[in-house]
Specification:
alpha+beta, OB fold (Dihydrolipoamide Acetyltransferase, E2P), BirA Bifunctional Protein, domain 2, eight-stranded mixed β-sheet, binds 4-amino-1,4-dioxobutan-2-aminium adenosine-5'-monophosphate, binds magnesium ion
Length: 458
Protein backbone atom coordinates (compact mmCIF):
# COMPACT_ATOMS: atom_id res chain seq x y z
CA UNK A 1 0.00 0.00 0.00
CA UNK A 2 1.85 3.09 -1.15
CA UNK A 3 1.65 5.80 1.50
CA UNK A 4 3.77 8.21 3.52
CA UNK A 5 4.55 7.96 7.24
CA UNK A 6 2.94 10.78 9.21
CA UNK A 7 6.29 11.35 10.91
CA UNK A 8 7.91 11.99 7.53
CA UNK A 9 5.12 14.40 6.51
CA UNK A 10 5.79 16.50 9.60
CA UNK A 11 9.58 16.30 9.59
CA UNK A 12 10.06 16.85 5.86
CA UNK A 13 7.00 19.04 5.38
CA UNK A 14 8.55 21.38 2.78
CA UNK A 15 8.78 18.45 0.38
CA UNK A 16 5.09 17.64 0.66
CA UNK A 17 3.34 20.95 1.14
CA UNK A 18 0.49 21.53 -1.32
CA UNK A 19 1.14 18.10 -2.85
CA UNK A 20 -1.20 15.12 -2.95
CA UNK A 21 -0.21 12.48 -0.39
CA UNK A 22 -1.64 9.21 0.90
CA UNK A 23 -1.58 8.26 4.58
CA UNK A 24 -2.86 5.24 6.51
CA UNK A 25 -3.80 5.05 10.18
CA UNK A 26 -6.46 4.77 12.86
CA UNK A 27 -9.03 7.35 13.91
CA UNK A 28 -8.20 8.62 17.39
CA UNK A 29 -11.01 11.22 17.57
CA UNK A 30 -13.34 13.04 15.20
CA UNK A 31 -15.65 16.06 15.11
CA UNK A 32 -18.49 16.69 12.75
CA UNK A 33 -20.54 19.72 11.76
CA UNK A 34 -22.91 20.48 8.96
CA UNK A 35 -20.45 21.10 6.17
CA UNK A 36 -17.10 20.04 7.56
CA UNK A 37 -15.67 17.16 9.60
CA UNK A 38 -12.30 16.67 11.28
CA UNK A 39 -10.47 13.44 12.04
CA UNK A 40 -7.35 13.01 14.19
CA UNK A 41 -5.48 10.21 12.46
CA UNK A 42 -2.55 8.34 14.00
CA UNK A 43 -0.35 5.82 12.20
CA UNK A 44 2.05 4.99 15.06
CA UNK A 45 5.08 6.69 13.49
CA UNK A 46 4.42 10.04 15.13
CA UNK A 47 3.05 10.84 18.55
CA UNK A 48 1.42 13.84 16.92
CA UNK A 49 -1.81 13.06 15.05
CA UNK A 50 -2.44 14.25 11.52
CA UNK A 51 -5.65 16.25 11.26
CA UNK A 52 -7.82 15.37 8.28
CA UNK A 53 -10.18 18.07 7.08
CA UNK A 54 -13.20 16.79 5.21
CA UNK A 55 -15.29 19.25 3.19
CA UNK A 56 -18.45 17.18 3.12
CA UNK A 57 -19.94 18.77 0.02
CA UNK A 58 -17.25 17.44 -2.23
CA UNK A 59 -17.20 13.88 -0.80
CA UNK A 60 -19.66 10.98 -1.15
CA UNK A 61 -21.47 10.33 2.13
CA UNK A 62 -20.76 6.60 2.01
CA UNK A 63 -17.03 7.41 2.14
CA UNK A 64 -17.26 9.93 4.98
CA UNK A 65 -19.75 8.31 7.35
CA UNK A 66 -17.90 5.04 8.07
CA UNK A 67 -14.70 7.04 8.65
CA UNK A 68 -16.19 9.10 11.48
CA UNK A 69 -15.74 6.26 13.97
CA UNK A 70 -13.13 6.01 16.74
CA UNK A 71 -10.75 3.13 16.03
CA UNK A 72 -11.59 2.77 12.33
CA UNK A 73 -8.61 2.10 10.04
CA UNK A 74 -8.35 4.38 7.01
CA UNK A 75 -6.28 5.03 3.92
CA UNK A 76 -6.70 8.68 2.93
CA UNK A 77 -5.48 10.67 -0.04
CA UNK A 78 -5.55 14.44 0.02
CA UNK A 79 -3.65 17.69 -0.19
CA UNK A 80 -1.09 18.39 2.53
CA UNK A 81 -1.60 22.02 3.50
CA UNK A 82 -0.28 24.50 6.10
CA UNK A 83 -2.67 25.23 8.94
CA UNK A 84 -2.60 27.91 11.58
CA UNK A 85 -3.59 25.65 14.47
CA UNK A 86 -1.89 22.37 13.60
CA UNK A 87 1.13 23.41 11.56
CA UNK A 88 -0.05 21.12 8.78
CA UNK A 89 -3.17 19.16 7.96
CA UNK A 90 -4.57 17.02 5.19
CA UNK A 91 -7.48 18.20 3.10
CA UNK A 92 -9.05 14.83 2.29
CA UNK A 93 -10.03 13.96 -1.26
CA UNK A 94 -10.47 10.21 -1.07
CA UNK A 95 -11.14 8.03 1.97
CA UNK A 96 -10.88 4.26 1.90
CA UNK A 97 -12.10 2.31 4.90
CA UNK A 98 -9.53 -0.42 5.61
CA UNK A 99 -11.16 -1.79 8.73
CA UNK A 100 -14.43 -0.79 10.37
CA UNK A 101 -14.54 -0.49 14.15
CA UNK A 102 -17.77 -1.48 15.88
CA UNK A 103 -19.30 0.36 18.83
CA UNK A 104 -17.99 -2.08 21.44
CA UNK A 105 -14.38 -0.89 20.84
CA UNK A 106 -13.19 -0.34 24.43
CA UNK A 107 -11.11 2.79 23.73
CA UNK A 108 -13.94 5.23 23.09
CA UNK A 109 -12.99 7.87 25.67
CA UNK A 110 -10.04 10.21 25.40
CA UNK A 111 -8.50 9.21 28.74
CA UNK A 112 -8.57 5.80 30.35
CA UNK A 113 -7.00 4.79 33.63
CA UNK A 114 -3.79 2.76 33.46
CA UNK A 115 -5.50 0.09 35.57
CA UNK A 116 -8.23 -0.27 32.97
CA UNK A 117 -5.70 -0.34 30.13
CA UNK A 118 -3.82 -3.18 31.87
CA UNK A 119 -6.94 -5.30 31.40
CA UNK A 120 -6.70 -4.84 27.60
CA UNK A 121 -2.97 -5.21 26.83
CA UNK A 122 -3.79 -6.13 23.23
CA UNK A 123 -5.37 -2.73 22.59
CA UNK A 124 -3.29 -0.36 24.66
CA UNK A 125 -0.60 0.24 21.99
CA UNK A 126 -3.36 2.28 20.28
CA UNK A 127 -3.32 4.89 23.03
CA UNK A 128 -1.08 7.92 23.10
CA UNK A 129 0.42 6.91 26.47
CA UNK A 130 1.58 3.50 25.25
CA UNK A 131 2.58 4.77 21.85
CA UNK A 132 4.94 7.13 23.70
CA UNK A 133 6.24 4.45 26.11
CA UNK A 134 6.96 1.97 23.33
CA UNK A 135 8.61 4.65 21.21
CA UNK A 136 10.99 5.41 24.09
CA UNK A 137 11.54 1.70 24.78
CA UNK A 138 12.53 1.23 21.17
CA UNK A 139 14.84 4.25 21.15
CA UNK A 140 16.56 3.30 24.42
CA UNK A 141 17.26 -0.15 23.00
CA UNK A 142 18.80 1.40 19.92
CA UNK A 143 20.86 3.83 22.01
CA UNK A 144 22.18 0.96 24.14
CA UNK A 145 23.38 -0.98 21.10
CA UNK A 146 24.79 2.22 19.66
CA UNK A 147 26.77 2.98 22.82
CA UNK A 148 28.38 -0.44 23.04
CA UNK A 149 28.95 -0.86 19.31
CA UNK A 150 30.77 2.46 19.11
CA UNK A 151 32.90 1.56 22.15
CA UNK A 152 34.20 -1.74 20.68
CA UNK A 153 31.98 -4.14 22.63
CA UNK A 154 30.76 -7.35 20.95
CA UNK A 155 27.08 -8.22 21.29
CA UNK A 156 26.84 -11.82 22.50
CA UNK A 157 23.73 -13.95 22.76
CA UNK A 158 23.85 -15.98 25.94
CA UNK A 159 21.55 -18.99 26.40
CA UNK A 160 18.07 -18.55 27.79
CA UNK A 161 17.82 -22.18 28.95
CA UNK A 162 20.53 -22.89 31.46
CA UNK A 163 21.55 -25.14 34.33
CA UNK A 164 23.10 -22.54 36.60
CA UNK A 165 21.46 -20.03 38.89
CA UNK A 166 23.80 -17.06 38.46
CA UNK A 167 22.45 -15.02 41.34
CA UNK A 168 22.02 -18.04 43.62
CA UNK A 169 18.76 -16.66 44.91
CA UNK A 170 16.71 -19.74 43.99
CA UNK A 171 14.45 -17.73 41.71
CA UNK A 172 14.79 -19.83 38.57
CA UNK A 173 11.77 -20.97 36.59
CA UNK A 174 12.07 -24.65 35.75
CA UNK A 175 12.14 -25.90 32.16
CA UNK A 176 10.90 -29.44 31.78
CA UNK A 177 9.01 -31.74 29.44
CA UNK A 178 7.98 -34.36 31.95
CA UNK A 179 5.72 -34.56 34.92
CA UNK A 180 6.55 -36.17 38.22
CA UNK A 181 5.96 -39.88 38.36
CA UNK A 182 5.98 -42.21 41.32
CA UNK A 183 8.55 -44.42 39.57
CA UNK A 184 11.28 -41.85 40.32
CA UNK A 185 12.85 -42.53 43.69
CA UNK A 186 14.99 -39.39 43.84
CA UNK A 187 15.10 -35.96 42.24
CA UNK A 188 18.32 -36.94 40.47
CA UNK A 189 16.64 -39.92 38.82
CA UNK A 190 13.81 -37.68 37.72
CA UNK A 191 16.09 -35.00 36.26
CA UNK A 192 18.24 -37.63 34.52
CA UNK A 193 15.23 -38.63 32.43
CA UNK A 194 14.18 -35.09 31.62
CA UNK A 195 14.76 -33.49 28.20
CA UNK A 196 18.31 -32.32 28.93
CA UNK A 197 19.16 -35.17 31.29
CA UNK A 198 19.64 -32.53 33.96
CA UNK A 199 17.76 -29.91 35.91
CA UNK A 200 17.22 -26.92 33.63
CA UNK A 201 15.67 -23.49 33.99
CA UNK A 202 15.25 -20.05 32.43
CA UNK A 203 18.23 -17.78 32.95
CA UNK A 204 18.12 -15.12 35.66
CA UNK A 205 21.19 -13.42 34.16
CA UNK A 206 23.53 -13.91 31.21
CA UNK A 207 26.54 -12.91 33.27
CA UNK A 208 28.34 -16.24 33.73
CA UNK A 209 28.27 -17.00 30.00
CA UNK A 210 29.02 -13.32 29.33
CA UNK A 211 32.19 -13.61 31.43
CA UNK A 212 33.25 -16.63 29.39
CA UNK A 213 32.80 -14.69 26.14
CA UNK A 214 34.57 -11.61 27.52
CA UNK A 215 37.57 -13.74 28.43
CA UNK A 216 38.36 -13.96 24.72
CA UNK A 217 36.53 -11.02 23.19
CA UNK A 218 37.68 -8.47 25.77
CA UNK A 219 34.52 -6.41 26.02
CA UNK A 220 31.05 -7.84 25.47
CA UNK A 221 27.45 -7.03 26.27
CA UNK A 222 24.29 -9.07 26.39
CA UNK A 223 20.84 -7.64 25.79
CA UNK A 224 18.04 -10.10 26.24
CA UNK A 225 15.20 -11.38 28.35
CA UNK A 226 15.88 -12.70 31.85
CA UNK A 227 13.43 -14.42 34.17
CA UNK A 228 12.91 -14.42 37.90
CA UNK A 229 10.32 -16.30 39.90
CA UNK A 230 10.36 -13.57 42.54
CA UNK A 231 7.25 -13.38 44.60
CA UNK A 232 7.66 -9.64 45.11
CA UNK A 233 4.44 -8.15 43.83
CA UNK A 234 5.73 -4.58 43.49
CA UNK A 235 5.63 -1.85 40.89
CA UNK A 236 9.30 -2.53 40.06
CA UNK A 237 9.45 -6.33 39.66
CA UNK A 238 8.49 -8.39 36.65
CA UNK A 239 8.94 -12.15 36.21
CA UNK A 240 10.19 -11.54 32.66
CA UNK A 241 12.32 -8.46 32.11
CA UNK A 242 15.11 -7.39 29.76
CA UNK A 243 18.61 -7.00 31.02
CA UNK A 244 21.70 -5.39 29.53
CA UNK A 245 24.90 -6.93 30.88
CA UNK A 246 28.29 -5.63 29.77
CA UNK A 247 31.38 -7.54 30.88
CA UNK A 248 34.72 -5.77 30.62
CA UNK A 249 38.17 -7.33 30.94
CA UNK A 250 41.08 -5.37 32.43
CA UNK A 251 38.63 -3.22 34.45
CA UNK A 252 38.32 -2.89 38.22
CA UNK A 253 35.34 -1.57 40.19
CA UNK A 254 36.46 2.02 39.76
CA UNK A 255 36.66 1.59 35.96
CA UNK A 256 33.28 -0.08 35.63
CA UNK A 257 31.59 2.62 37.71
CA UNK A 258 32.97 5.21 35.29
CA UNK A 259 31.67 3.18 32.35
CA UNK A 260 28.23 2.74 33.93
CA UNK A 261 27.86 6.47 34.59
CA UNK A 262 28.97 7.43 31.09
CA UNK A 263 26.65 4.79 29.61
CA UNK A 264 23.56 5.92 31.55
CA UNK A 265 24.16 9.58 30.71
CA UNK A 266 24.74 8.78 27.08
CA UNK A 267 21.50 6.83 26.61
CA UNK A 268 19.47 9.48 28.44
CA UNK A 269 21.00 12.14 26.20
CA UNK A 270 20.12 10.11 23.12
CA UNK A 271 16.47 9.69 24.16
CA UNK A 272 16.07 13.36 25.08
CA UNK A 273 17.44 14.34 21.67
CA UNK A 274 15.57 11.81 19.61
CA UNK A 275 12.20 11.56 21.37
CA UNK A 276 11.40 15.23 22.13
CA UNK A 277 7.63 14.84 21.62
CA UNK A 278 7.48 11.81 23.92
CA UNK A 279 9.55 13.47 26.66
CA UNK A 280 7.43 16.63 26.45
CA UNK A 281 4.30 14.47 26.74
CA UNK A 282 5.62 12.58 29.79
CA UNK A 283 6.69 15.86 31.38
CA UNK A 284 3.18 17.20 31.01
CA UNK A 285 1.20 14.03 31.68
CA UNK A 286 3.25 11.89 34.12
CA UNK A 287 6.11 13.67 35.85
CA UNK A 288 6.22 17.46 36.05
CA UNK A 289 9.82 18.65 35.62
CA UNK A 290 10.95 15.43 33.93
CA UNK A 291 12.89 17.23 31.23
CA UNK A 292 14.77 19.28 33.77
CA UNK A 293 15.46 16.19 35.87
CA UNK A 294 16.97 14.41 32.88
CA UNK A 295 19.09 17.37 31.92
CA UNK A 296 20.41 17.59 35.51
CA UNK A 297 21.31 13.90 35.40
CA UNK A 298 23.23 14.36 32.17
CA UNK A 299 25.09 17.39 33.48
CA UNK A 300 26.08 16.47 37.02
CA UNK A 301 28.22 13.79 38.65
CA UNK A 302 26.55 10.81 40.29
CA UNK A 303 27.18 10.52 44.03
CA UNK A 304 29.27 7.71 45.57
CA UNK A 305 29.09 6.32 49.07
CA UNK A 306 30.22 3.07 50.66
CA UNK A 307 27.65 0.75 52.17
CA UNK A 308 29.26 1.26 55.59
CA UNK A 309 28.93 5.06 55.28
CA UNK A 310 25.38 4.69 53.96
CA UNK A 311 24.40 2.70 57.06
CA UNK A 312 25.71 5.57 59.21
CA UNK A 313 23.78 8.15 57.16
CA UNK A 314 20.60 6.13 57.51
CA UNK A 315 21.05 5.70 61.25
CA UNK A 316 21.63 9.42 61.72
CA UNK A 317 18.73 10.39 59.44
CA UNK A 318 16.23 10.47 62.30
CA UNK A 319 13.80 8.66 60.00
CA UNK A 320 11.41 5.98 61.20
CA UNK A 321 12.12 3.11 58.82
CA UNK A 322 9.90 0.04 58.72
CA UNK A 323 13.01 -2.15 58.54
CA UNK A 324 15.76 -1.29 61.02
CA UNK A 325 19.19 -0.49 59.56
CA UNK A 326 22.08 -2.63 60.77
CA UNK A 327 25.48 -3.23 59.24
CA UNK A 328 25.22 -6.60 57.54
CA UNK A 329 21.61 -6.50 56.47
CA UNK A 330 20.56 -5.64 52.94
CA UNK A 331 19.31 -2.14 52.19
CA UNK A 332 15.55 -2.12 51.72
CA UNK A 333 13.76 0.00 49.14
CA UNK A 334 12.87 2.60 51.79
CA UNK A 335 16.57 2.98 52.67
CA UNK A 336 17.62 3.19 49.03
CA UNK A 337 14.99 5.79 48.34
CA UNK A 338 15.99 7.90 51.32
CA UNK A 339 19.61 7.94 50.14
CA UNK A 340 18.87 8.84 46.55
CA UNK A 341 15.71 10.96 46.92
CA UNK A 342 16.26 12.86 50.14
CA UNK A 343 19.95 12.73 51.01
CA UNK A 344 21.60 13.14 47.59
CA UNK A 345 18.60 14.01 45.40
CA UNK A 346 20.40 12.39 42.47
CA UNK A 347 21.70 9.01 41.30
CA UNK A 348 24.11 7.38 43.76
CA UNK A 349 26.48 4.42 43.61
CA UNK A 350 26.52 2.52 46.91
CA UNK A 351 29.74 0.48 47.00
CA UNK A 352 31.44 -2.26 49.02
CA UNK A 353 28.55 -4.26 50.41
CA UNK A 354 29.02 -7.03 52.99
CA UNK A 355 30.06 -10.21 51.19
CA UNK A 356 27.39 -12.26 52.94
CA UNK A 357 24.45 -10.45 51.33
CA UNK A 358 25.87 -10.48 47.80
CA UNK A 359 26.49 -13.06 45.06
CA UNK A 360 29.38 -15.57 45.03
CA UNK A 361 31.21 -14.10 42.03
CA UNK A 362 32.06 -10.70 43.53
CA UNK A 363 35.66 -9.82 44.38
CA UNK A 364 36.46 -9.96 48.07
CA UNK A 365 37.98 -6.72 49.37
CA UNK A 366 41.17 -6.74 51.45
CA UNK A 367 39.09 -6.30 54.64
CA UNK A 368 37.81 -9.87 53.99
CA UNK A 369 34.32 -8.63 54.89
CA UNK A 370 33.08 -6.58 51.96
CA UNK A 371 33.01 -7.08 48.20
CA UNK A 372 33.92 -4.76 45.31
CA UNK A 373 30.31 -4.35 44.27
CA UNK A 374 27.97 -1.43 43.70
CA UNK A 375 24.28 -0.79 43.14
CA UNK A 376 23.24 2.34 41.26
CA UNK A 377 20.20 3.87 42.95
CA UNK A 378 18.04 6.55 41.34
CA UNK A 379 15.27 8.77 42.74
CA UNK A 380 11.75 7.43 42.29
CA UNK A 381 12.83 3.86 41.67
CA UNK A 382 15.78 2.66 43.73
CA UNK A 383 18.17 0.14 42.19
CA UNK A 384 18.56 0.21 38.42
CA UNK A 385 22.02 -1.36 38.13
CA UNK A 386 23.71 -4.21 40.00
CA UNK A 387 27.48 -4.14 39.38
CA UNK A 388 30.72 -5.68 40.59
CA UNK A 389 34.32 -6.48 39.98
CA UNK A 390 34.50 -10.25 39.65
CA UNK A 391 36.63 -12.51 41.83
CA UNK A 392 39.52 -13.34 39.50
CA UNK A 393 41.41 -15.45 42.03
CA UNK A 394 40.58 -19.10 41.58
CA UNK A 395 41.06 -20.16 45.22
CA UNK A 396 39.08 -17.24 46.66
CA UNK A 397 36.30 -17.88 44.15
CA UNK A 398 36.10 -21.57 45.05
CA UNK A 399 35.98 -20.77 48.73
CA UNK A 400 33.13 -18.26 48.19
CA UNK A 401 31.24 -20.96 46.29
CA UNK A 402 31.82 -23.63 48.90
CA UNK A 403 30.66 -21.24 51.61
CA UNK A 404 27.37 -21.06 49.73
CA UNK A 405 27.15 -24.84 49.29
CA UNK A 406 27.51 -24.57 45.52
CA UNK A 407 28.53 -27.77 43.67
CA UNK A 408 31.93 -26.89 42.17
CA UNK A 409 31.66 -29.71 39.61
CA UNK A 410 28.72 -27.89 37.98
CA UNK A 411 30.92 -24.83 37.39
CA UNK A 412 34.13 -26.34 36.02
CA UNK A 413 33.96 -24.30 32.80
CA UNK A 414 33.41 -21.07 34.71
CA UNK A 415 36.28 -21.94 37.04
CA UNK A 416 38.53 -22.61 34.03
CA UNK A 417 38.35 -18.89 33.20
CA UNK A 418 40.25 -18.29 36.46
CA UNK A 419 42.66 -21.14 35.77
CA UNK A 420 43.76 -20.15 32.26
CA UNK A 421 44.96 -16.56 31.94
CA UNK A 422 42.68 -15.02 34.56
CA UNK A 423 42.37 -11.23 34.39
CA UNK A 424 40.73 -8.55 36.51
CA UNK A 425 37.29 -7.94 35.02
CA UNK A 426 34.03 -6.27 35.95
CA UNK A 427 30.48 -5.96 34.72
CA UNK A 428 26.99 -4.82 35.51
CA UNK A 429 23.35 -5.55 34.80
CA UNK A 430 20.90 -2.79 33.91
CA UNK A 431 17.19 -3.56 34.04
CA UNK A 432 15.71 -2.18 30.81
CA UNK A 433 12.25 -1.61 32.28
CA UNK A 434 13.69 0.25 35.26
CA UNK A 435 15.65 2.70 33.10
CA UNK A 436 12.52 3.18 30.98
CA UNK A 437 10.60 4.04 34.18
CA UNK A 438 13.31 6.50 35.18
CA UNK A 439 13.44 8.23 31.78
CA UNK A 440 9.68 8.42 31.26
CA UNK A 441 8.36 8.79 34.80
CA UNK A 442 6.13 5.72 34.33
CA UNK A 443 5.29 4.51 37.84
CA UNK A 444 4.53 0.84 37.26
CA UNK A 445 6.77 -1.69 35.49
CA UNK A 446 3.60 -3.26 34.06
CA UNK A 447 3.22 -0.18 31.87
CA UNK A 448 6.64 -0.55 30.22
CA UNK A 449 6.11 -4.07 28.84
CA UNK A 450 3.88 -5.14 25.94
CA UNK A 451 2.68 -8.13 27.94
CA UNK A 452 3.85 -7.87 31.56
CA UNK A 453 4.41 -11.16 33.36
CA UNK A 454 4.15 -10.82 37.10
CA UNK A 455 3.38 -13.18 39.95
CA UNK A 456 -0.20 -14.43 39.53
CA UNK A 457 -0.62 -12.77 36.13
CA UNK A 458 0.33 -14.28 32.76
O1 LIG B 1 21.20 -6.86 40.61
P1 LIG B 1 20.92 -8.00 39.71
O2 LIG B 1 20.27 -9.19 40.29
O3 LIG B 1 22.32 -8.37 39.04
C1 LIG B 1 22.59 -9.38 38.21
O4 LIG B 1 21.77 -10.13 37.71
C2 LIG B 1 24.03 -9.45 37.79
N1 LIG B 1 24.29 -10.78 37.23
C3 LIG B 1 24.31 -8.35 36.82
C4 LIG B 1 25.73 -8.34 36.33
O5 LIG B 1 26.61 -7.97 37.08
N2 LIG B 1 25.96 -8.74 35.08
O6 LIG B 1 20.01 -7.50 38.50
C5 LIG B 1 20.45 -6.45 37.66
C6 LIG B 1 19.36 -5.47 37.40
C7 LIG B 1 18.80 -4.80 38.65
O7 LIG B 1 19.59 -3.73 39.08
C8 LIG B 1 17.44 -4.33 38.16
O8 LIG B 1 17.55 -3.13 37.41
C9 LIG B 1 17.05 -5.44 37.21
O9 LIG B 1 18.24 -6.10 36.82
N3 LIG B 1 16.14 -6.40 37.84
C10 LIG B 1 14.82 -6.45 37.61
N4 LIG B 1 14.02 -5.70 36.84
C11 LIG B 1 12.71 -5.99 36.83
N5 LIG B 1 12.15 -7.00 37.51
C12 LIG B 1 12.92 -7.81 38.29
N6 LIG B 1 12.35 -8.83 38.95
C13 LIG B 1 14.31 -7.53 38.38
N7 LIG B 1 15.35 -8.10 39.03
C14 LIG B 1 16.44 -7.39 38.70
MG1 LIG C 1 20.76 -6.31 42.54
Amino acid sequence: MKHTDVKVLFSENAKFVNQSVTVCGWVRTWRDSKSIAFIELNDGTSLKNLQLVIEKDGMPENEVKPALVVGAALCVTGKFIPSERNGFELSAQKIQLLGACPQDYPLQKKHHTLEFLRTIPHLRPRTKYFEAVFAVRSRISFAIHNYFQTHNYKYVHTPIITGSDCEGAGEMFRVTTQSWNAKYKTENEYFAEDFFGAKAGLTVSGQLEGEIAAMGLGKIYTFGPTFRAEHSNTTRHAAEFWQIEPEVCFADLHDIIEIAEDFIKSIIKDVVENCPDEIAYFDERIEKGLKEKLSNVINSDFAKITYTQAVEVLKKSGKEFKFPVEWGSDLQTEHERYLTEEYYKKPVFVTDYPADIKAFYMKLNSDNKTVAATDLLVPGIGEIIGCSEREADSEKLKSAMLKRNMPLEAYTEYLDTRKYGSVPHSGFGLGLERIIMYITGVQNIRDTLLYPRTVGSL
